[in-house]
Structures are given as structure tokens and as C-alpha cells.
Amino acid sequence: MSAPTLWYVHPYAAGPGVGRTYRPFELGRAWQAAGARVVVITAAFHHLLDVPNRLKGAHEVGGVPYEFLATPSYSGNGLGRVVNMAALPLQLLHHAAALARRYGTPDMIIGSSPHPYAFPATHRLARRFGALSVFEVRDLWPLSLIELAGVSPKHPLVRLTDRLERYAYRRADAVVSLLPNTQAYMQARGLDPARWHYIPNGASATAALLPDCPSPACVQAQQWRAQGKCVVVYAGALGVPNHVSSLVNALAVLRARGDDRIVAVIVGKGEETQRLQALVHEAQLQDRVAFYPQTPKEGVFTLLRHADAGYISLRPEPLFRFGVSPNKLFDYMLARLPVVFAIEAGNDPVRDHGCGYSVAPGNGPQIADALAALASLPATERQAMGERGFQYVQQEHSYPLLAARYLRILAARQQGQP
Asked: Where are the annotated coiled coils located (predicted)?
């Protein structure tokens, strides 16, 4: 088979020096290493870019070709964002011929769905160019609107999204799920199970090898470790769904027990930042909890090298019955850290692979017990936990492995297999 050409259409794509959504970049780089021609197509304005509208048209991001298509700006989750969602597929259709001249006629077009509204355009272009049409499902719509946002099932946007989702499951040549337990749900909505594929979020081994980038958070972690403290890191968004207050509550429980061995470095930003800082102040935990703003990836990995454990939590949601695939979990595993996993979901890689402790989300005493247990372990046992997590993420979530799965889907279809 000659080198294939892949178009990866992701409304919120970013990458190093551009923004926080790294999957498109990492897959693109892995496909290039496998000999494929690649372009990542995204909106020039979206909320996950470091500087929206800074890049327009053709650019390379870390050596991967990107096309930033002009889309209107928006703020929050109102009408402006809906208009932005609708603009990307229209721009894609308008520029398709030029994109084909610049990057080559596609053999596979992947429409990724942080939201699904671009799929009709990606599918139409796949049919036009004789390419494989792939629907990549990151979030389940309209369930996310109903169960997470509380939108009525009768809302016009929900009804529209429901029809679009069923259309995608019926028409796509392949459906890729980032979540492990979605096959039955998708089958009930029209998907032939032979076209279902599980390709989760990935982890970049090269990210763990980034050069040290010292930061105030890293200096604090080093100081605490020099004092013999067990340093737990949370690095990620500080929103209501992230449930980071449960970590603060657990440290308050430990303080009440007289256990001062454990400290926490919290790195990130979000609407809960001020409330979390107030909780720390009210509980008089300033001597054991430190906050720092969002840090570039190299700074995060430098911090993780000076930590003893990673913490991840999510507020319980029925939607998690389909599983979770959180990037920060894989970052902790790449750093060989044991993990306290405070998430109730349809999958639990921490428990399954013995690389930390799984606890009930929001349960302060139980989280405190897990933190105390980690602090009590000999360093060699914590290292063994971290090594198990590292081996798991290397074997199941490396981007070259995930990229190869997409190429196998394409090769199978070209050979006449389902």
C-alpha cells in the first residue's frame, strides 16, 4: 500500500505552543513516523487555544501540518459558540478542493467529536474523495447535554444532535470510541458492532523526557521533600467536575488526625480556584497546600519528577458508566507516580493494574486513608506501583500504537474487510 493521506478534523485541536489539546498533534506525529501524509484541520478560534485567532491558514505545529480555518469568536457557552461550531464544517466544505491540492486527496477523513457537528461535512467529503469516513467519539452526544449540562431531552438542540449522532453511527465506515464501554449504546443507536473500534486517549513517552523547566511549584515540591514530606500533585483544570475540593477535604481530615506527613501541590486554573483557596484558608491548611497557575507541559513533567504521588478526581456522573480516559492520569503514569484515583466509572485502570489506590469520589476520610497508606509505604513499594503504571501506559496507550490502529482500520477496508 502506498503512503496514505489522512485528514484529521478536530474542532479544538492544538499542540505545543498552541494550546492544550494534544491528541491531534501526537497522532499526526505518529502517523508521519509511520510514513503517512497528514493534515490536522481545526478552527482558528476556540477556547482551548492559548491565543485564539493567532494562527490562520496553513502552519506547522511541531512539524505536523495544520490548517486553521477562520471561525467567529465566542465567549462562554451561548449562541456565539453554536455559531462557531457551525462555521467550521462550512469552511471545511468551502476549502476542501484547496486542501486536497495542498495536502493530497485523502484516503481517510477522521471527524473527531468533542462536538459532532462537523461529521456531516467530513462524511460528505469522504464520499466525494473516495476516502474512508471515520467518526471519532470523544464525548457522547446528546447524552453529555442531558446528563452533564441538564438540558431537557426535548430541547431542539438535543433533538438535532440525537438525529446527527444516529446518522453518524449508521453512515460512518468506522466509529472510534475513546471510551471502553460504548459499543452496546452505539449499537442500539444504529451502529454495526463490526465497525466499532476502541482507541483511547494516549500518552507521549517523549513528553516524559522533556528537559527540566523549574517553576515555583517545583521549588515548593523540592523544599517539602527535603523536609521529609510526601508530596501529592494535582495538575489539571480546577472546575466543578474535577472535584479537587475532595483533596482539600482529605488533607483537613489528616490534619485533624494529627498526620502532617502529606502535602499537596495543586497546579491549574478554573472557575473553582478562588473557592478552593478559601477552603484551604478556612481549614488552616496553608502549610500543606500550595496553588500555582496553569503550567506548560514541560513544567508539569518537571514537577512530577519531584513528587511522590499523583491525584485525580471527578465528580460522580452517570455518564461515566461508559468509562473515562483522562490525560492527566496517563501523565502521572508516565512519570512513574503511584496514583490516588477518586473516580467512579465503568473502568478503573489504577485498580486493574495495581498502580495506586482507588477510592470513592468526594469521600474525604477514604481519600485521607489512601494518602496515609501511600505515605506509609516504603519508597521501593511506591516505586513498584509507579513502574506498573508506566508499563501499562506504554503497552496500551502509546501514540505509535494508537496511530497504528487507525492505519489498520484503513488497510482492512482497502483489502475489502469490514
From this structure: none
The phi, psi pair for 363, rounded to 5°, reads -90, 90
Distances in Å between the alpha carbon of 14 and those of 28, 85, 101, 226, 397?
11, 16, 23, 37, 19
CATH class of 207-396: alpha beta
pLDDT beyond 60 at 1: no
Q: How buried is 154 (Cβ within 10 angstroms: 0-12 exposed, 13-18 middle, 19+ buried)?
A: exposed
Whether the CB-CB separation of 107 and 7 falls below 8 Å is answered with no
Rounded CA separation 233/231 (Å): 7
Q: What does the domain layout of the chain look like in residue ranges?
A: 5-202+398-414, 207-396
First CA to last CA across the chain, in angstroms?
A: 18
- Half-sphere exposure of 2 toward its Cβ, with a 13 Å CA cutoff? 5
- How does strand 230-235 pair with strand 262-267? parallel
The tens digit of pLDDT for each residue in 152-187 reads: 999 999 999 999 999 999 999 999 999 999 999 999
199 phi/psi in degrees, rounded to 5: -135, 95
Strands 57-61 and 64-69: antiparallel
**Distance (Å, rounded) from C-alpha 26 to C-alpha 260?**
40
Nearest of 22, 397, 409 to residue 202 by alpha carbon: 397
**What gap in Å lies between CA 96 and CA 91, rounded to an integer?**
8
Question: Strand, helix or coil at 5?
Answer: strand
Q: How far is CA 90 from CA 43, 86, 147, 173, in A?
A: 11, 7, 29, 22
Pairing of strands 108-112, 57-61: unpaired
- The answer to whether 118 and 111 have CB atoms below 8 angstroms apart is yes
Q: Domain 5-202+398-414: which topology?
A: Rossmann fold (3.40.50)
Q: Give the count of alpha carbons within 13 A of 202, CB side only.
A: 25
Residue pair 204/22 in contact by the 8 Å Cβ criterion: yes
Domains 5-202+398-414 and 207-396 share a fold: yes
Q: What confidence tens digit (pLDDT) does each residue in 229-287 have?
A: 999 999 999 999 999 999 999 999 999 999 999 999 999 999 999 999 999 999 999 99
